[in-house]
Amino acid sequence: MPAPAAGPAYAAVNPAYPKSWWMIAFSCDVKKNQVVPLRVLERDLVLWRDGNGVVHCQAGHCPHLGAHFGYGGSVVDNTLRCGFHGWQFDAEGRVHSQPGPDAPRKNACLPSYRVVEKHGALFLWNGAGEPDIDFPDFLSFLSKIGATPDDVTFHHHRWFLPFPAKWFGENLCDGMHFAIAHDTGAWGDTIIHAETATTMEMENAIHERRPWLGAENIARRFVRREVVNLLTPVSDNVMSTCWGGSIHLVRFAGRPRILGTIIACWLPVDADTHYVMDITLVPKVKVPVVGKPIEKLTGFVAGLGNWSTAIQDAGLMMHRREPENPPYSKEDRGLIRFRRLWDSRIESQYQLEGDNIRSNGLRAGIRVRGRENAPDTTHRADSNGTPKVMEEDA
């Protein structure tokens, strides 16, 4: 009996970023028999959907003479065809055929990347070989509220922002920022509920909270020109479950429900730009004729609210310059733990020297167990502003 054929030899897109799942596009972006160019994780890629509807992700440039498949390339007989010299590559990156009488080259290979299509989105695994993180079960919380996946619709939003993705993604582990930057309370901190080598579950607690729809807060939103922000009420602590540093499930702590739950990813384009990728969960309206329009309107309104929240952060992020060895406070413990998770998922030792753009490392004073080039301590300031050692589990 012949041995089963080997599967694709999947590659890592960019080992300077965490080995994890990344939301890279939406299903509607790639039609059947279409090639779409994509710039993510500082690399040029293409997505293409074969005649059977299966999406593939491969390197953007032809290994022959470097033409970009996304500009003039096509899908022919379930292969990716280069528009320059007509070389065709199968889904595993092998040369399938090329024009002329010669046999196809055997030593040319197009790097291929693992991609999963789920919830109307495409998720890329940035790593070689088999993932060490199962694809997240984002909908497992539904059983706790007496719902099923049939009760959910998915609404997709995407925004381009001119600053590093990591800065935005780590905000979900920074409870103080939820209180101050988003003007929801006097102060905040982060509680770590569960943690493994690949995941974290956090609750961002907001203290001395202001009533979201109270007269004072509404007036503040008018003064700050943030009226749209009222569409996404932050009236409870914000929960975040993170897989690998890249993918987050965001929901409210005290009132778990479908509406108000988001699957989010901050996707690097280049070192200093990124996409905010957002799947907003909306309850299915099981009413003939009007159900679908109500769902779409709800998703649209939720997207406006999500955008207004992102804009509150964007102005701060665009002008940010973090110092070396920041004087962390006790309320930064969630941020520190997240930074350790992020760095632990990066396979490039060189990158862990840290620039606070792709990683944290030495520059941010973050210790990752088992990494020889990581510093021995993290620091925070004492009451006089003098840095001192922060306890290991802070």
UniProtKB/TrEMBL annotation:
InterPro entries: Cholesterol_7-desaturase, Rieske_2Fe-2S, Rieske_2Fe-2S_sf. Residues 369-382 have a biased composition (Basic and acidic residues). Coiled coil: none annotated. The keyword Transmembrane helix does not apply. Residues 368-394 are annotated as: Disordered. The keyword Iron-sulfur applies. Residues 22-124 form the Rieske domain. Keywords: 2Fe-2S, Iron, Iron-sulfur, Metal-binding, Oxidoreductase. Pfam families: Rieske. Signal peptide: none annotated. It comes from the Bacteria. This is Rieske domain-containing protein.
